[in-house]
Write a structure and sequence with these properties.
The chain has about 375 residues and is an alpha/beta fold. About 35% of the residues lie in helices and about 15% in strands. The protein is built from eleven helices and 15 strands. A six-stranded parallel sheet has the order 2-1-3-4-5-11, with helices on both faces. Helix 3 (about 80-90) packs parallel to helix 4 and helix 5 runs antiparallel to helix 10. The two termini are about 20 Å apart.
Length: about 375
């Protein structure tokens, strides 16, 4: 994970990728299409994999695919196990394969070179080729900011400005901009809020996620969130009588007494469009970055655990983001060392956000 090249990420995920015509994969009859999914977690994990799987099921329903036209490999590690999972799906006859975790990227690149008639679409990376391999992701920082408002208002109600964040990797831009957007949302309604971050160095490690959450609780954090893939952070808050913002999917059923809301993904639109393009033979290796306006990211319904007035504050901010009057990363912004990073009146572009390497003022990294 730590090998993420932020400059490369900025170059390829933000804007339209230049495309040179090559040996484009052939069209596929709809009744013959097989779609494969490679998941880092289990399809019932209530988090990232669950959200992706729900998108895949919706894609199959949208296109009228039969049950045997959607295949998946779950609990796939970010090592040679990914190569084996990709190979298995190719051998099952999949003409389109979605690989859904950053650490799968290099293995997808290799498989794409080996099987040029299979389309490989990889989530959250930066590599691609000119024939059959692209990347997709979303402006999750928009939904993170809204979730931060819910957390900030709850923290203010509790009289405890210390928020907690269970992070996957502390030096990956996806994590960094998510941390920053969340705290900026919280500080928009509770300027005294701070954010203590505990990293687990894994996207999916339920036991490690639980331990990190418990450490943050012991440090006095009253509202927690996470960017890891399971529901263990919200579960820990439920047990301790505290509050939590989930991630990836609606986790209200996992912790009804603790859960406030969650930044969520709806992958169904992208998956459906991609599969339709493969069927029609018009798919191109162009990278995709969607946001709230596209329906790719959003906020799960608020629960009654939220502070009164939360819905109104979130709606105001959401309207501003969609209309363009509110930017999540708008100056002046200082890093947690006190250095000015974004000047007054300046706004970070997508490229700059996707390569972010600094943490906002008010963020504290906790060493386990």
């Amino acid at each position: 994970m730590k090998k993420l090249l932020s400059a490369a990420l900025a170059l390829v995920l933000c804007l339209s990728l230049s495309w040179t015509a090559g040996a484009r994969p052939d069209p596929v009859a709809q009744e013959e299409l097989k779609v494969g999914m490679v998941y880092i977690g289990g399809v019932e994990d209530m988090g990232y994999t669950y959200a992706h799987h729900q998108g895949a099921l919706a894609m199959a329903e949208n296109l009228g695919l039969a049950q045997d036209q959607l295949l998946w490999e779950a609990n796939v590690p970010e090592d040679e196990g990914c190569a084996a999972a990709l190979e298995a799906l190719v051998q099952e006859g999949c003409q389109l394969i979605f690989a859904t975790s950053f650490g799968f990227m290099d293995y997808v690149e290799q498989a794409a070179a080996q099987y040029p008639q299979v389309v490989f679409s990889h989530c959250s990376g930066y590599k691609s080729n000119e024939t059959n391999f692209n990347n997709y992701f979303g402006r999750i920082w928009e939904a993170r900011y809204l979730a931060g408002i819910a957390a900030g208002l709850k923290a203010k109600e509790m009289g405890n400005p210390r928020l907690g964040y269970v992070a996957a990797y502390p030096d990956v831009p996806e994590v960094i901009y998510s941390i920053n957007a969340y705290l900026l949302g919280a500080r928009s309604v509770y300027p005294e809020a701070t954010l203590t971050v505990q990293a687990v160095n894994s996207w999916y490690d339920p036991q490690g996620e639980r331990q990190a959450a418990e450490e943050l609780i012991a440090l006095g954090c009253g509202v927690l969130t996470h960017d890891t893939d399971s529901a263990e952070t919200v579960n820990a808050c439920q047990e301790q009588g505290l509050y939590a913002v989930g991630y990836n999917a609606d986790m209200s059923s996992a912790a009804p007494g603790a859960y406030l809301t969650a930044p969520v993904w709806d992958w169904s639109g992208y998956l459906t469009r991609t599969a339709r393009q493969v069927i029609d033979g018009v798919w191109k290796p162009v990278n995709y970055l969607g946001g709230m306006a596209d329906g790719l990211v959003g906020l799960a319904p608020l629960t009654d655990n939220c502070t009164p007035g939360t819905q109104e504050e979130i709606q105001k901010a959401q309207t501003g983001i969609l209309e363009g009057s509110l930017a999540v990363f708008q100056g002046p912004l200082y890093d947690n060392g006190g250095h000015l990073r974004v000047e007054q009146g300046q706004t970070l572009a997508d490229q700059e956000i996707l390569s972010m390497s600094w943490l906002c003022q008010g963020v504290v990294l906790n060493e386990p």
